[in-house]
Amino acid sequence: MLNNNSILKVNKITTRFLTQDGLVHAVNGVSFNLKKGELLGVVGESGSGKSVTVLSLLKLLPMPPAEIVSGQAEFEEQDLIQLDVNQLRKIRGGKIGFIFQDPMTSLNPVLTIGYQIAEPMRQHMGLSYNQAHKRSKELLELVGIPNARNCLSSYPHQFSGGMRQRVMIAIALACNPKVLIADEPTTALDVTIQAQLLDIIKRLRKELGMAIIWITHDLAVVAGMADRVAVMYGGFIVEEAPVEELFSNPKHPYTLGLLKTIPNLEGKRAEKLESIPGQPPNLLVKPLSCPFGPRCNYSFERCNRENPTLIDRGKNHKVACWLNADSGERL
Predict the structure, then answer these.
(1) Other C-beta atoms within 10 Å of 253: how many?
(2) Spans of the chain below 70 pLDDT
(3) What is the DSSP letter of 278?
(4) What is the C-alpha separation between 78 and 72, in angstroms, rounded?
(5) C-alpha distances out from residue 327 to 65, 321, 331, Å
(6) Which of 143, 144, 163 minimizes the C-alpha distance to 154?
(7) N or C: more exposed end of the chain, with fewer CB within 10 A?
(8) Pairing assessment for the beta strands 39-43 and 228-233 based on DSSP bridges
(9) The predicted structure's pLDDT at residue 227
């Protein structure tokens, strides 16, 4: 059950894809707890399972080839995984908002911006056309789009990438969701537009008090926005901690490797940026050992035969590793 401070509890979500090459083990028993009003950052390289995890929660994956094999996602005393499509439609875009990665393919090209913002409010909140139209204008102003009234009659192709992403934020916030899921919303945008969008999210989060799951590969964004961070690799969460604790005291070799790839703009400049050697795991192979083992400088025999589970190492810091980073002890 959820405690009074939690709004979403995800327990052992497992999602696979049946492909011509075989069964892809995309997400392998992912669990996390989202607290009311907090921003949980989910980081990891491409293919680590970040997007598939959150898309599984609302069954936004094509099924087939995707299959949610097991797990629970408790939200308002309901298990999202057990709900049918009609029941989920009452939650998607209403109580749980979603900002997709690519606004050009997420927005309908033949419908006006105003219609696409108003439709969720008419469906979930029962607003009239005039009420939804007025609220749509307010939302565009809220996300920083000038001349909002005239923009309502525009189409997605008439907007730049940054403006389309602002529209996606407006749609996601239209029904005052309790949870907002943002799937790499600043990807492919220039740094100036990224900064503007991040400022908007920070302001709206403070004003509306919603909880946010922020998926990204940009550690700098996480450092400036998140309360807590979950690091994913090979379909698993390998480390989870409060943001300051994670950046100051990383305990998983993969997290340590990620942090070393960030340029240091202060002090003496390094000779060159470090990289993590090797290749990501083959997800067609069922994971039985540590997925990061073949790329890890600290691996030993147990890593090759047994996959570690998340272990609490104090200060709300959990890590899935057979090496105790504090003592150097092999478990």
Answers:
(1) 25
(2) 1-4, 103-104, 188-189, 263-273
(3) S
(4) 9
(5) 44, 13, 11
(6) 163
(7) N
(8) parallel
(9) 92
Look at the block and give the residue holding tokens 């979403």: 8
Alpha-carbon 200 to chain mean position: 17
E strand or H helix at 242, and its extent?
strand 236-242
The answer to whether the CB of 329 falls within 8 A of the CB of 253 is no
**Which distant-in-sequence residues (6+ apart) come within 8 Å of 3 by Cβ?**
none
From the DSSP assignment, how many helices (H) and strands (E) are in the chain?
11, 12
Q: Which of 54, 35, 329 is nearest to 210 (CA)?
A: 35
C-alpha angle 33-38-39 in degrees, rounded to nearest 5: 90
Using CA atoms of 78, 80, 84, 87 in order, give the dihedral in degrees to the nearest 10: 60
What the block records as the tokens of 186 is 């600043």
Max Cα distance, the chain (Å): 67
Question: How many Cα atoms occupy the beta-carbon half-sphere of 247 within 13 Å?
Answer: 17
Tokens of 120: 């969720």
Q: What is the pLDDT of residue 161?
A: 79
Sign of CA dihedral 258, 259, 260, 265: positive
Question: What pTM did the predictor assign?
Answer: 0.88
Q: Token pair for residue 218?
A: 């940009």
Q: Are 277 and 283 in contact (CB under 8 A)?
A: no
DSSP H or E stretch at residue 116: helix 113-124
Q: At what angle do helices 129-142 and 113-124 cross, to 10 degrees?
A: 120
Rounded to an integer, what distance in angstroms lies between the CA atom of residue 38 and that of residue 274? Answer: 32
CB 83 within 8 Å of CB 90: no
